[in-house]
Amino acid sequence: MTKRKFIVIGIVLVIILGIGGKVYMDNKRFKDEMLNVVNSGQAKQVYEKTLKNADSKALTSDGIIKSYKVDYDSVEHNPMGGIMLKLIINDDNQLYIRVTLDQEENGRLTNSSGGGSLPLENMLEKGNMNND
Fold first, then answer.
1. Cys-Cys link to 114, which of 84, 98, 103, 126 (CB 3.0-4.6 A)?
2. What angle do CA 22, 39, 43 make, to 5 degrees?
3. Element (H or E) spanning 45, and its range?
4. How far apart are CA 14 and CA 123, in angstroms?
5. 74, 82, 90: which is closest to 111 by C-alpha?
6. What's the CA dihedral at 47, 48, 50, 51 to 10 degrees?
7. Cα(17)–Cα(19) distance, rounded to whole angstroms?
8. Which pLDDT tens digit goes with each residue over 60-89?
9. How far does CA 14 lie from the centroid of its chain?
10. Rounded to two decimals, what is the model's pTM?
């Protein structure tokens, strides 16, 4: 190969790496922004309201839903808008509620859709803590 071909290949590789790096950094920044929203106090209020809608005694000793945590591996952008994620209930991966955080025009976060896993729905329907 001639020296000129090496230079052209080198320039093409630098351009490809530059574009790839830019795309990676944009995706990382977007993911970080989503995680900031997911971890915000306003999002926590949405989660707790969602849990109380499913179980009026949620997060109390009398409730079926004792605790929750965000499944960070499930956080993703909803193509229709918002952020989708799962809340793991009582440290049991089979018990979860899907949440879609949306931002209203006034800036408030809401849960626009979602639902519980079948085992969780069955537990809530029966009103007991047996995971049958």
1. 98
2. 120
3. helix 41-54
4. 56
5. 82
6. 120
7. 6
8. 999 999 999 999 999 999 998 899 999 999
9. 34
10. 0.80
